[in-house]
Amino acid sequence: MCAWERFCAFAREPERRAVGIDCRLTVTGVTYEVDAELAGETVVVWWGLFDQELWVERGKERFGPYHPIGGPIPLHRYRRHRKSRREVRADRVGELAQRLALPRSALSGEDNVVLAGAERSSMEQVPVQPFHDPDPFHELSFPTPLAAKRAIAANFPTRTADSSML
């Protein structure tokens, strides 16, 4: 019977890999960070089935052990969900919507005023000023389509005989 460390050494196989310029190696989906002097070099990686560490050889020099810096999460350990930019923005919009008190009639066109997401105390703080003028923006409206066409024709000059020949 041999020791566990010796048994793990039997299960190791050498593999030639190139170290990235960021001093990182990825083996079976797990990222390891090695010494800076190995950046961009081709090395021999010793990694076994039972190992959590990684050993690296360059020429006759052996470096290691290196431990994982990322990769699979061990059992019974959980990472918190990291929100994307879209989720962060949606949260900000949701917070802003809760702080604003818009009348539901402004969104749906209903006549009765119901404030969405507002308490009774904030409802009294909302200033209300009704329009007394039936046409506050002085928009033109005509009773019939024929009256509208007559108004358009009245604003354009009449054609002369010379302009109709063109």
Q: Any overview of this molecule?
A:
The protein is an alpha+beta fold and 166 residues long. Among the domains are: 4-66, no CATH class; 101-126, no CATH class. The chain is 29% helix and 20% strand. The protein has 6 helices and 6 strands. It has helices spanning 4-10, 85-99, 104-108, 120-125, 145-155, 161-164, and strands at 12-18, 24-27, 30-33, 42-48, 54-58, 61-66. Strands 1-4-5-6 form a 4-stranded antiparallel β-sheet. Strand 5 and strand 6 form a beta hairpin. The longest helix is centred in the middle third of the chain and has 15 residues, at 85-99. The protein is elongated and about 105 Å long. It starts with a helix and ends with a helix. The relative contact order is 0.08. The mean pLDDT is 76.
Per DSSP, the total helix count is 6
Q: What is the helix content?
A: 25-40%
Distance between the termini: 110 Å
> Which regions have little confidence, pLDDT < 50, spanning 5+ residues?
none
The total count of strands amounts to 6
Average pLDDT value? 76
Q: Sketch the major β-sheet.
A: 4 strands, antiparallel
The topology string of helices and strands comes to HEEEEEEHHHHH
SSE layout and pairing:
Layout: H1 4-10, E1 12-18, E2 24-27, E3 30-33, E4 42-48, E5 54-58, E6 61-66, H2 85-99, H3 104-108, H4 120-125, H5 145-155, H6 161-164
Antiparallel strand pairs: 1-4, 2-3, 4-5, 5-6
Keywords:
166 residues, alpha+beta, 6 helices, elongated, four-stranded antiparallel β-sheet, single chain, 6 strands, two-stranded antiparallel ribbon
